[in-house]
Amino acid sequence: MSKKLLRRGGLLAATLAAGIFSGAQAADPIKIGSFLSVTGPASFLGDPELKTLRMYVDKINEEGGVLGRPLELVHYDDEGNASNARNYASRLVRADRVDIIVGGSTTGATMAAVPLIEQSRTPFISLAGAVVITDPVKPWVFKTPQSDRLAAERVMQDMQERGITKIGLISGTGGFGRSGREQTQQVAEAMGIQILEDVTYSPSDTDMTAQLTRIRNNQDIEAVFNFGFGQSPAIVTRNFAQLGIDRPFYQSHGVASNSFLDLAGSAAEGLRLPASPILVPDSLADDDPQKTIVQAYVDAYEARWNESVSTFGGYAYDGLMLAVAAIEEAGSTDREAVRQALENIQGHVGVTGIFNMSPNDHNGLAADSFRILEVVDGGWKLIE
């Protein structure tokens, strides 16, 4: 065999090897990291979030992936423990070397991980609600739920429309309730609504009758607003009904799920709360820009898991879709390019709302992204 032929064969082999190697590189997965409270006291948040991420990672991969690469979900269950969340965030960044993180079911878990995420310069989309997550703005941290401040604004807009100017406030002492209380106090003052009674409860309390009796006995109070999540708001709701408090009652978006209705039972009748339209897709107008996306998510989730949707799974859907949109816009998984793409997302229609991010706003939602829902005949009814 001639040297020329050998050289040609060697070049062909080298070319084929390089092509195979290049193809393998191109097919390397894009790693989506996640830490969620799938078990433990906040499992009602983390369970639908993880189911949503798994469902849509599978769907995206079936449709060809992102930038021609499959997605790989790397997930850890923090069990609602902030220390666990910090450790898992460290593992995702340092050992798993994920490209972006979508997770953090609770404010406590999210904030425990934030310093590490900022230090490692990893894009992070939180699924928790407190305003402190994105205010002040942190370069690498974004979030999908409306903030507790926006929830307070939306509730008090509805109160003003009903002529309510004097309220009783009851809230949990956990991270979400504490932040919600602070934001409600600020919003109430700005909107000219007086808080005549301000009482709190611990997440471990099993009866809030004493706090609610104090509110009931103040005859000047025109409505009551509870800010909390988990099982506590259901206890507050049942105690509210047991005491026969005949005044408008509001909950926060922290209970926007059918599981809350199951826990509260008939005591929830008539209460109002701010929520995304995911709980009332059939009530949306045909020309509502969210209707198609909301209905598709509801249908897909309920068919896959044979259970009702919650707004919390919707936060995960929006988080993943924002991550995908940013990676596609960046054209790579370069972290700074993805961060900049996230920061400049405009008009992104999600199930929670229409996101308009900016360097000064890493949530991208306004108070009007909330719809006011009322419990009527044991179900959710769209009020506006």
Automatic annotation (TrEMBL):
InterPro entries with a match to the protein in the record: BCAA_transport, Leu-bd, Leu_Ile_Val-bd, Peripla_BP_I
Entries under Gene3D superfamilies matching the protein: 3.40.50.2300
A Pfam family annotated for this UniProt entry: Peripla_BP_6
Keywords carried by this UniProt record: Amino-acid transport, Signal, Transport
Domain Leucine-binding protein: 29-378
Keyword match Transport: yes
GO term, biological process aspect, one: amino acid transport
Signal sequence residues: 1-26
Family named by the database record: Belongs to the leucine-binding protein family.
Record's protein name: Amino acid/amide ABC transporter substrate-binding protein, HAAT family (TC 3.A.1.4.-)
Organism: Marinospirillum celere
Organism phylogeny: Bacteria, Pseudomonadati, Pseudomonadota, Gammaproteobacteria, Oceanospirillales
